[in-house]
Amino acid sequence: IVAARGSVGAARVRVLEEAVAGYGGELLSGQPLEDWLIQPREEHRLGYVWALDQLAGAWREAGRVQQAIGLYQKLVEVEAANELAHRALMELFDASGHPERAVYQYTACK
């Protein structure tokens, strides 16, 4: 993820795709929650959230609506209160001719 922050264009997208694909869930999920693990676990999750957001935005900008929708959906699964991701989904659903899905997304984020 650190490599993606400084990259541009296609190289950046590749790094982001690798970061998203390589996310294996919660860091050390089999371990009991101890004080020393709280911060690294949250940083790991936030890195994934950041990569999802950046990659979804790149696909949206490139007009690859279905890829963007899939990533924004993953993002709201991980971070249900992410208002910007919900809004992006509503806009993408509406723009792609699925206003009913936009309305459903609106009700899901209330």
Describe this structure in words.
- Helix content is 76%, strand content 0%.
- It has helices spanning 2-6, 9-22, 35-61, 65-78, 83-95, 99-109.
- The chain is built from six helices and no strands.
- By secondary structure, it is mostly helical.
Give the tags.
mainly alpha, 110 residues, flat
Distance between the termini: 31 Å
Largest sheet: none
* Annotation field: number of helices: 6
Strand portion, in percent?
under 5%
> What is the residue-mean pLDDT, rounded to a whole number?
89
Would you list the SSEs in sequence order as H and E? HHHHHH
Which segments are poorly predicted (pLDDT under 50) over 5 or more consecutive residues? none
**Structural class of the helix and strand makeup?**
mainly alpha
* Alpha-carbon Rg, integer: 15 Å
Which percent bin holds the helix content?
A: over 70%
Q: Tell me how many strands there are.
A: 0
Name the shape in a single word. flat
Which secondary structure elements does this structure contain, and how are they paired or packed?
Elements: H1 2-6, H2 9-22, H3 35-61, H4 65-78, H5 83-95, H6 99-109
Helix pairs in contact: 2-3, 3-4, 4-5, 5-6
Sum this structure up briefly.
Helices cover 76% and strands 0% of the residues.
